[in-house]
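Schema walk-through. Below, the input block comes first and the output block second. Nothing else is stored per chain. Lengths vary across the set, and this one has 507 residues.
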Amino acid sequence: MDLEGVKVLRRAGLLSPIRPDRLLGMGLAVARWGLTPATGYAAGAARHPERVALIDDEGSLTYREIDHRTDRLAGELRQRGVEAGSPVGLLARNGRGFVEASVAISKAGGDLLFLNTGSAGSQIAEVLDRERAAMVVHDAEFADLLAEATADRASVTTEELGALATSSALGAPPKTGHQTRLVILTSGTTGAPRGAARSGATIDDVIAMLSRIPLHTGETTVIACPVFHAWGLGHLTLSMLLGSTVVLTRKFEPAKVLKLVEEHEATALIVVPVMLDMLVGAAGPDTSSLKVIASSGSALPGDLATRTLETFGPVLYNLYGSTEVAYAAVATPDELAKDPKTAGKPPVGVTLRVVDEAGNDCPVGTAGRLFVGSGLAFGGYTDGSDKDRLDGLVATGDLGVIGEDGLLTVLGRDDDMVVIGGENVYPNQVEDVLLSHGGVRDVAITAAEDASYGVKLVAHVVGSASEDELKALVREKLARFAVPREFRFLDELPRNATGKVLKKDLR
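--- output ---
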């Protein structure tokens, strides 16, 4: 760890003095569980046992309570066949059921396969079969959805585990020595979701995130986005390490989330852009306690960034990354005020390169493919396939450009770019322009074959603006060849549980 890392940890409050007995307890937790989901609450129970770790729709739990409850659950899961390296699927909404199952599976030695609550039953069954899951833990509400998936494998509900957390006479099973593997599914916006495997975070990964987003120990974070996906799960893990109180609610309701911020005087709110748009519209409760609103999971429209800053003040941080590369860049409030469309700069310890088709670095101001290296980059898909790699860096699948000021602008998917009239057109830029119109609430651009031009842009619009108005706007802001040749007006866009538009459905 270098001097910059020390400064970051000190600013976050992670280098404050610790009583020797508590430090020993934290060390024993790491020695027993390794860098797994189990460690955060076990170490927290040693350092601040009575601090509230989790507030959800059922009430609150301290670090000690979660540690003790998950010891019992780990014993129960071991008795039901979860052994070292056993893949276990988890399908649960935000709440203690998800948190305690994750920790208990880890303590039992199993590998965690996080399932998307928005997936179809047949899709979940396919994923569980592909990953050879020995068991699936799920909320009771998903029992019918999982009928096919649980026909020939063990299952247990989070509600059953919740009852066993207090009634079981079992304790934590003997350690296996296995380092729990986390498998996070990709969003599946362009095809079937794939499993991206990674191990636990290191102190360098924590430093990277905290170098750009000023979170602090012992504060309160409301995680509104799904914790089964990389963005929400990453903040749940980070909150454990910071000894923060996490507030979760099963289903996203804008007014409720803002009331939770007010009630618990939360200092951080974690969202995806589609949620942020609704929160801006629902503003009313006192959210002055917020120091950070962190958004990621899909592209943040420039107009939404501006409206968020106007509504909540200079607290918005926009993270650009993916399930595969984790984090690539973070834009701070000052940077977003200067350029609402920017993705910001790489955190400490993250390498970001913009390269041409030959793999050479592009000059400043020139667009190219984005490659990223960090401690949390995945090790490949669980089906044996991989992303493109370059000198140890992983492709994000996007095109981008870095300006003279060092700020990154993401132009969109590298396979989304189309050539019209000999000019490169980036759908993401067209979407941003259309969203700047007051009569457009949501929009997505896709490409389709065209008999005359070979390819054309198709705009899928939610709102009251007319086609002629929108064509004129794009022609004014971009160029003639960027104007969509077809407009489809919809009541809403298809999105997955993390808020990403399902463009394959639109196509």
